[in-house]
Fold these 4 entries.
Entry 1:
Amino acid sequence: MSDLKKRTPTLVYLLAASHSGSTLTAMLLNAHSDICTAGELKASHLGDPSRYMCSCHSLIGKCEFWNDVSKEMAHKGLEFDITDAKTALGDGPSRYVNRLLRPLHRGKLLELVRDVFLSLSSTWRDFLPSWKQRNKALVESIGTVSGANFIVDSSKIGVRLKYLWRTNGLPIKIVRVVRDGRAVALTYMDPSGFADAKDESLRGGGSGVRVDDDESMTDAANQWLRSNQEAEAFLRTVPAESHIQIRYEDLCRDPVATIESVHEFLGIAAEGEGVLRFREFSHHVVGNGMRLDGDSRIVLDDRWREVLEERDLATFDQIAGDLNRSYGYE
């Protein structure tokens, strides 16, 4: 275990619609000696802790890394268990607060309205400072255990990032990840087939059981649209130098150059082609099922071209085609 650092590591926040390549991005970044990826630090929806696996393939409750993080949190006076992390905004203190936090980020004016109504809750006023402290302490504890100065959070959600951004003493850099919305929509329509571990026995967090409601293309397209609108709305509120945008397709076609552009953005030296051996590095990621795959080959997943029917493509184009094209997807 590393000596306690005097400064808080930089949080590298991956902002994206779900299933847009954020887990792959996070694991590739983890190949750098000064970056540690621990997955979705909001740590919600882990499922049955007696069956959920860390990406190191240990049961999450027996993972040495996460147990060491818990000890570091205890040194800060905070009880912590990754299976009940209490770092998600959804862990709010009341139904009133949770209802106000549910909508995605919608721009300055509506966010001001949200904040005004939240400020009326005394439980929120007590909760927010402790939530910020807990998340900052988690970043620091992961930095202490890993020895890294950059900690990657692939939680993706813009509202979470909004409140993290307001945490004093927590430096943040944002990596926006975009992917062709038609590919992402397919993962919402059939998450078991297109958004989980390749090995069926490892799906559902390692339990082999995944329970999802398959969405219609109408719902899938709207979900992708709103997630990306949220990301753009938030990014308009922060300095341009605080964020970089990469595309999943570029990441797959040229992972070294794409990840090195992120290294340059973070101000750290590239370390060659280690990203091509990213599975060889120690990972302790919670989140998307691909973290449990064993293959280091990076292959562009564009199965949507063969799977989606013309009516699905027409529905997507009507709902989200304009935004998709603005990202360069024709």
Entry 2:
Amino acid sequence: MKPALLYESPFTDITPQEPEGLFRSAEMDGLIQVLEAVRAAAVAG
């Protein structure tokens, strides 16, 4: 999943602050790092 999808539905449906309304800044950073790592591993595999 591309991190940009965090700024679309269903995240935007839950809170008007988008994912920042659901996750703390450090959590968002970690989530994006995990998503990018999974994506990189999928592309490499």
Entry 3:
Amino acid sequence: MSAREWLDKDFYGELGVSSDATTDEIKKAYRKLARENHPDANPGNSKAESKFKAVSEAYGVLSDPEKRKQYDEARRLFGSGFGGNQGGFGGFGSGAGAGGAGGFDLGDLFGGGGPRPGGSGAGAGGLGDLFGGLFGGGGAGRRGGASTASRPQRGADVETEVRIDFAEAVRGATVPLRLSSPATCLTCHGSGAKAGTRPRTCSTCSGAGLVTRNQGAFAFSEPCPDCRGKGQIIDDPCPDCRGEGVATRSRTLTVRIPAGVNDGQRIRLAGQGEPGRNGAAGGDLFVVVHVNAHRVFGRSGDDLTVTVPVTFPELALGTTLTVPTLDGKVSLKVQPGTASGRTLRVRGKGVGRKSGGSGDLLVTLQVVVPSTLDDSAAEALRSYAEATAEHDPRAEWDELLGR
């Protein structure tokens, strides 16, 4: 993509966020729009597919702090595009001319040349350094360097989501993941040219992707109009990707979910994102894991938690309980006089740790009171109440409250 095309795009507008949006706000907006316009959710809808590509492109820039900084700085300088009246090239004309008192020269501004007689010696810094990272830099293009479009460019990172069961999160799992995303075109293998042909070097810019245009005392470098800054021309484009070298296609990956993964955790798959351009490495795929809640078990770090209902006699007299785990059942001894709400620990029945071993199972005992009693049970409780009448469970409260 040429510099003009990039700066004319409103990435913030594509995602529906303000220019001062936080990283989390940008990510949230992208996830929402990507989910709504995903090709899998809109089969045959070209408008949704175009929107999906646009928001993915916008997220690729705004999610990268360095790219976002450069993009923001460029738009502050040139407005919404190269031709804008606020900060565009036209704005420089109101300052000192080539022979003005300040010795001002756009060549110095863009780091294009060395010291001029009578000048201050601008060197190679200035905005040329800033735009070097964006679209090849003004100076580099005039000296025959390659434009950004013809340089290797790492592929954008991609983010997707997967939902797994509670037990799979505890033990780990291998799950298939189906993606519809930009990938290297299988027909042309990324060249963009029809099978049996190959791109040719642009004769206008000699493959640099940039041409120099003289205007009075100034010289401007801009993307080559014939190859659109790519340095190459494809006479016979690939019919599947239309000369882009990248096409949206479905693929299935096998993702290994490690034991102990947390809800909302991201797993990185290196090189499985969008393909790189001109031989560069692909981006990464980040899989956000969502874990379904369990009807019985909970989790606290590497420990599993479970609440076991018990009767009052079991706590008062002691007993041996059969307690469920994710791997079966275990026996748990309850000592006489154990209080309701007490938590007991079963070693090694929790979540697997990366460093080895497992967490524990925390068993909380909770007395369950019958909603109804028959006559014999009620009489037995009255007898118990009379036998323990001298025991006041709230005596400590009265002492603490000074009653």
Entry 4:
Amino acid sequence: MTGAGKTEMIFPLLEHVLQRGGRVLVATPRRDVVLELAPRIAKVFPDNPPVVLYGGSSQRWENARLVLATTHQLLRYHQAFDLVIIDELDAFPYHNDPMLAYAAENCCRPDGRFILLSATPPKQLQRAVASGRMPHAKVPARFHGHPLPVPKRIVMEPVERCLARRRLPLSLLKELKGSVERGAQIFVFVSRIRHIEPLVRLVRSLLGSKVPVQGTSSQDEGRSEKVLSFRSGEIRVLITTTILERGVTVPRSDVYILDADSGLFDEASLVQMAGRAGRSKDDPAGKVLFASREWTASQRGAIRQIRGMNRLASRSGYLCSQGKVGER
């Protein structure tokens, strides 16, 4: 589940191996997620500061017993670790890349342990779990005991047309202003990089100069700094692509997915983007909004999956009474 605290759950495993003199590798497909995890892991393990590896990392020649890396960096190692944890295994570029899958298994020692983490595992892994062929642990609730925010839908013309007309639907604008008024940080996900800058200008003009709006994508060299500014509240609205669909935790955040009917947004992507909301115990409800002209199978499947996890969490007794009442 997104926001269930998967990172914190692996800390006892890391500690167990490190206390016995072993080496640990935590790998994730994306640099942004590595940079998000690094300070959290370093704070918990001050006696074993992690070496952080990604393309262009200044630590690429350093050795340590605790390594945090993008999955491409696994090609550097051969049977070097007692514990290998692959986070976000369903994400690009790890997903559907046999070379990286081989590298991940190859860097684990023959008597070591190999663990996969995912909030949205690929279908073949889901089938392996369902058939009992893969040992697993399922976590259907977030640490704060409240249900996942269930997305609501509004009908909206494609972003391309809205930009051409230089206006947004009143229903969307009303929701955005409501998020601003309640003090939320606002993720706005779009399917195309080319839409970001014109949409930034349009949203700025509609929300006013007092609401800082920025955009970022994989082509933005300053995206790490913008995420930090967004997390601190200096940026209130961040318009982005799926590069921020996972691994980024921002307290009190609302999520808007425009062109949610795009073929680029599959069910897993929609679940991951929706999972940016409600992660904080101080703001567990959040808001998730699917805006699109068409109502697709991916959108229906994402909502069905989120509702299913909430039902399982409720049946298992993981939700506090307030959380059960608040389930939508």
